[in-house]
Amino acid sequence: MHILQPKHLKLKEEEVEKILKKFNISRSQLPKISLDDPALPESCKVGDVIKIEREDKEEKFEYFRVIV
């Protein structure tokens, strides 16, 4: 992983359920990320949800993607 690349973390199923409830969406409504993306952690498979943490100065932003 490159130093400028944001963190990509694979979420556990319990965490995924909390996020889907929080935003009142289904897994298919999440933005997509390709399984071939080099930033993904190993042992990821199609259907897993990834949390991407980006930092801007002192703020942290979280983004969620489903692997396709």
Q: What does the largest sheet look like?
A: 4 strands, mixed
Structural class of the helices, strands and pairings?
Answer: alpha+beta
Overall geometry comes to: globular
List the helices and strands in order.
Answer: EHEEE
The separation of the N and C termini measures 21 Å
Fraction of residues in β-strands: 25-35%
Uncertain stretches of 5 or more adjacent residues: none
Count of runs of 4 or more consecutive helical residues: 1
Major sheet: arrangement of strands: 1-3-4-2
Report mean pLDDT, rounded to a whole number: 90
Taking all Cα atoms into account, the compactness measure Rg is: 12 Å
Q: Could you estimate the helical fraction of the residues in percent?
A: 10-25%
Number of E strands: 4
Description:
This protein has one helix at residues 13-23; strands at residues 7-10, 32-33, 49-56, 59-67. The chain has 68 residues and is an alpha+beta fold. The longest helix is centred in the first third of the chain and has 11 residues, at 13-23.
Summarize the structure.
The protein is of the alpha+beta class. The protein contains 1 helix and 4 strands; from the N terminus they run βαβββ.
